[in-house]
Amino acid sequence: MSHRVFRLMPSAWAALLACTCAHAGYQSPDGHFSLSGFGTLGVSRSSTDDAIFNYPGQGGGATKHASPDPDSKLAVQGTYKFSPTVSGTAQVMTKYDAEGQYIPNIEWAFAKWQALPGLSLRAGRMGAPFFMISDFRDVTYTGTAVRPNLEVYGQVPVSQFEGADASYELNLGGTTLTSSVWTGQTKANYATALTGGPTDQITLKRAVGLNVLADLGNGITLRFGRSQGKLSIDSASAKDVGSQANELAGYAQYYADNAASVAGGVGGGTAAAINASVAGAKANAAGFAQVNDLLNPQGVDASFTGIGLAYDQDNWVASVEYTKRKTKSFIADTTGWYGLLGYRIGKFTPFVGYAKLTTDRTSPNPVQTNALADSGGFDTDFDTAAGAVNAYAAALGDGVSAFMASQFVNQKTSTVGVRWDVHSGLAVKAQFDRITKDANSVGTFLVPDPTVPSGQAFIANKKVINVISLSVDFVF
């Protein structure tokens, strides 16, 4: 892709070569400073050119042409201990972003105070704790599969938040219970098409959350999480549609407000037609007026809830996660879940998985397209209002429908793969995903231009897409 700023590969290969020789990160002689890192060199290829396979929000990815973009990343993390109980941590990561670039970004930058043996407090920029493996979602070396499951982890395309959290660990017999609360705000850029326009920005403010993790022993871990906040979306394309809707709402309302006086001036059948159009004009105006608030939500309620189970004992490894996303906006309510099962055979872990993403609710299109009668030239302003509504209401409705359609994301994925632990700190993975998306669904794919025939056909029809992925994960 010509817009790609390809900055990752040389440094990532250097880090990979280094990690094959040294398994541990650096620690200063006095023990105050430590440096570590992780990364992935990945490549994926899908069976279609009509849509792009990626991590939702990225500005590109894999098609029939193999691409490193969905999974490749490199990060370095440093921690300095100011005292036995106070430390600071910073993490810099480069991965493919919404603008289609590899740009180093400060992913983490926080201070930590171990107030009590079981109580820790942190403040700054940290990993957004929406999922079972939130803190390690980018450290794919720690996972069995090539990447966190998209049907679940693609629902909330943010990886960090700025704020504070508190965690308390309590031992209850054979169970270790860790409870954490957090608050802050988060934002992320999100690519919805490759048409050259600016990316959307998703912001969640006044966010609060609770996570409870129970280590039951014998390799069993349970997790519950609940987060909520005020969602805002900044989208240039949505603002454009909203502006057009407001303009048409003004025309429709002008028509309704002046219909009686104009009808009185023209009389006859023209007056009857105008009077018959008043109810439609009012309905049109009310519907048009809803579009801007619908497509440009500002500070609306949003929540995300998840439960998970992980098992890692002897040769068996398994995980299950069930999640629900809800918003009071055009962003759809969704349910996503997955299950994964693997079995270690020496240094190899073959695994299988299944996942499903379901759209629970989409917003109705408020646009109405009632035709309005004009005055036959008696009042030019009145006729201009009627003409604008008649000419552009249908196009506005189609535009709003396109936004609504982008929120239908039903898909399911069957997965088979194998992980090879070459040695400590280095793993090679191969994975095959068979993704089935419903008719009229975008799934988790990025459609480069949903207005062209190939994009429309991809969305309209049920599709089965095969994806092959290879990755080398490393920590150092």
Mean pLDDT: 93
So, CATH architecture of the largest domain?
A: Beta Barrel
How are the strands of the biggest sheet laid out side by side?
A: 2-3-4-5-6-7-8-9-10-11-12-13-14-15-16-17
- What is the CATH T-level topology of the largest domain? Porin
Shape assignment: elongated
Helix count? 6
- What radius of gyration results from the CA coordinates? 27 Å
N-to-C span: 31 Å
By CATH reckoning, the class of the largest domain would read: Mainly Beta
Beta strand %: 35-45%
CATH homologous superfamily label of the largest domain? Porin
In N-to-C order, the SSE pattern is HEEEEEEHEEEEHHEEEEHEEHE
The low-pLDDT segments are 1-15
Oligomer: single chain
Biggest beta sheet summary: 16 strands, antiparallel, barrel
Structural class: alpha+beta
Task: Return the domain count.
Answer: 2
Percentage of residues assigned to helices:
10-25%
